[in-house]
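Priority: medium. Attachment 1 of 2:
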């Protein structure tokens, strides 16, 4: 593994690591680490540093409604799925968008203030895009794990064992 990949792995695990900490872990000078990170940022490999918030403990996130939407589309001539994807991901409600294999073409994760807000977005925005053939909406009720982060606290059994 080269040093760039090693630094990326360290930052994936903890983006708050200091240059000095990364330097010690990779056995590179702080100047070398800074230069590698700057290059990764300039090349668009590192796009953003963000905090991962537990939605079960964030009052603002608890009030939001998330939905996963499966969309079947007719690809555009010369642009394929990219033109449709471009129109979909520009909506502020859209948090993630994926091109899929299988029974549908696009998977969209959206967020709204209420069930009706999500339903209106689907009815008035997504379903009216030319090329959209069908839409299935699934409301996300609870997140247990996302991006390798487990959101539920493990409960330990506090009962004492019985010895016979």
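Attachment 2 of 2:
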């Amino acid at each position: 593994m080269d040093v760039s990949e090693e630094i990326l792995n360290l930052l994936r695990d903890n983006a708050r690591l200091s240059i000095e900490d990364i330097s010690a872990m990779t056995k590179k000078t702080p100047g070398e680490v800074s230069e590698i990170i700057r290059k990764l940022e300039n090349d668009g490999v590192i796009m953003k540093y963000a905090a991962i918030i537990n939605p079960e403990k964030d009052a603002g996130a608890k009030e939001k409604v998330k939905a996963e939407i499966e969309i079947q589309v007719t690809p555009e001539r010369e642009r394929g799925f990219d033109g449709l994807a471009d129109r979909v991901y520009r909506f502020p409600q859209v948090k993630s968008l994926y091109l899929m294999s299988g029974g549908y073409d696009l998977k969209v994760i959206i967020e709204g203030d209420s069930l009706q807000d999500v339903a209106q977005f689907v009815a008035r925005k997504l379903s009216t895009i030319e090329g959209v053939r069908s839409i299935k909406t699934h409301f996300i009720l609870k997140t247990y794990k996302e991006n390798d982060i487990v959101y539920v606290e493990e409960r330990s059994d506090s009962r004492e064992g019985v010895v016979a």
